[in-house]
TrEMBL record:
Record-level GO cellular component terms: cytosol
UniProt source species: Kosmotoga olearia (strain ATCC BAA-1733 / DSM 21960 / TBF 19.5.1)
Protein family according to the UniProt entry: Belongs to the IspD/TarI cytidylyltransferase family. IspD subfamily.
Top-rank EC class of the record's enzyme: transferase
InterPro entries assigned to the protein according to its UniProt record, in alphabetical order: IspD (IPR001228), IspD/TarI (IPR034683), ISPD_synthase_CS (IPR018294), Nucleotide-diphossugar_trans (IPR029044)
TM ranges: none
Catalytic activity: 2-C-methyl-D-erythritol 4-phosphate + CTP + H(+) = 4-CDP-2-C-methyl-D-erythritol + diphosphate
Lipid metabolism as UniProt keyword: no
Protein name: 2-C-methyl-D-erythritol 4-phosphate cytidylyltransferase
Site label Positions MEP for the nucleophilic attack, positions: R155, K212
Length: 235
């Protein structure tokens, strides 16, 4: 029997660091809203049966309007919380009636993730073992205290956490609910909560560019990547 996989796309933030007059997820990247590009990665995959978009509550109606323009009306849009952690939990709760086997949690601000990695990630998820897309640290890292370098660690032990982060649905929901019971509401990473309940997380390199768009410079660089990867027939 084929497993059921769902995706939660988190776009609940205000994007204040971007400096625009709309949340950054509504900024257009090569003619298409950032959040739409992220939604389409998963909605357009034959391996994903349900897609949930978690959106800033003030922008839900606008998001639905835009999704409709791209014929994405079946994407479920729910309200984000005060923190990313609470936004993810809202997305997970929206999937409870569906009861997927696996859920992939992705930041809407990473619209360049390559969908051909989805089956590889799904195949890597195991009971009590989540999977996080990562990238090795490529520069020297410093441990600093009071403005002075205290130690230069071996960077081979350090990896940059990215998304999607994927887990068995019931397990990550349990981890989120446990964190809430413990008064934890501002974890920036789902794997943090998964580890707190005694589970394991494995890393997976998927290749390709998968940056998080936070600033105008990030947007410009993402635009360059899309232009370089655009088929010649579209140029």
């Amino acid at each position: 029997m084929r497993i059921k996989v769902a995706a939660v796309i988190v776009a609940g933030g205000k994007g204040t660091r971007f400096g625009a007059n709309v949340p950054k997820q509504f900024i257009k990247l090569e003619g298409k809203e950032i959040f739409v590009r992220s939604v389409e990665i998963f909605h357009g995959s034959p391996f994903i049966s349900h897609t949930v978009l978690v959106m800033n509550p003030d922008w839900i109606d606008k998001a639905k309007e835009i999704l409709s323009c791209y014929e994405l009306d079946d994407v479920v849009v729910v309200s984000g919380g005060e923190t990313r952690q609470l936004s993810v939990l809202n997305g997970l709760k929206a999937l409870e009636p569906v009861k997927p086997d696996i859920v992939m949690i992705h930041d809407a601000a990473r619209p360049l993730f390559e969908k051909n990695c989805i089956p590889k990630i799904i195949a890597s998820v195991e009971p009590e073992i989540g999977v996080v897309v990562t990238e090795p640290a490529k520069e020297t890292l410093y441990i600093v205290k009071d403005g002075f370098v205290e130690k230069v660690p071996d960077r081979s032990f350090y990896w940059h956490a990215k998304t999607p982060q994927s887990f068995f649905f019931a397990e990550i929901l349990e981890a989120h609910l446990h964190a809430l019971e413990q008064g934890i509401t501002n974890a920036t990473d789902d794997s943090q909560l998964f580890l707190r309940v005694g589970k394991k997380v494995k890393i997976l390199e998927c290749g390709g560019k998968n940056p998080k768009i936070t600033t105008a410079q990030d947007l410009a660089e993402a635009s360059c990547v899309l232009k370089l990867n655009k088929p010649r027939s579209e140029n």
